[in-house]
Amino acid sequence: MELLEGIETRRSSRAFKSTPIPRDVMEKILLTAGRSPSYTNTQPWEVAVVGGQKKDELSKAIFELAKAKAATSSDIPHPQSWPPELEQRFREHGARRLATIGVARDDTVGRENLRLSNFEFYGAPCVVFLFMDSTLSSWSIYDVGLFSQSLILAAHSFGIGSCLQASITNYPDAIRDFLGLPPTRKLIIGISLGYPDPEAVINTYRSTRITLDDFVQWYE
Ligand SMILES: Cc1cc2nc3c(=O)[nH]c(=O)nc-3n(C[C@H](O)[C@H](O)[C@H](O)COP(=O)(O)O)c2cc1C
User: Which of 56, 59, 92, 182 makes the best surface tag, with the fewest CB within 10 Å?
Assistant: First the structure.
């Protein structure tokens, strides 16, 4: 797959086939993501790859917390408010995604099921958690972001869909306990990975983008 085409055609998948990702393919994806640039080549990313029964057990643990609306404590706090233009984009995304799957705004059950499906990793056979040392600065979060984009693009080149999920970082202590990691490992993001289910309506959702004029100023 050509590079620009890969960047342009990647999109989040939110329903997957159960087909596992072969180990050699996952290794290639992770090695490729490891080529990402980082602040003074510090490569702060630490990756937990969770599949098979372990993935089901972890999903169950955090699904129960999410269902019970247990108090959340993301290592990176979620924004409490947005500048108006960003809030508009965020609301538009939410509304269009609900419309795609035929869930009305006042359908509290449908909306809750959509929220909870995050914690089932959207049925993906594999979920990857990215951590870094908790003493690192925001520059390292930036680096882990670059790693994330490389990872999902490399996955895409193998026909593997992905969904970055801040929502599944809501219960970092439960995830660390499950993985046997100490509190010094800061959870940055979770990424569900698998072969996209082409029949799933949710996978027909297409996000929009602002135009060049909306985000570029030329100085010449
Ligand atoms: C940091 C970050 C967190 C995200 N968290 C979630 C999430 O919790 N659940 C979800 O379904 N999608 C999540 N997404 C996916 C975004 O909604 C998606 O990337 C955006 O709407 C653009 O759509 P596209 O990926 O299909 O191009 C997240 C994306 C990023 C970059």
Answer: 182
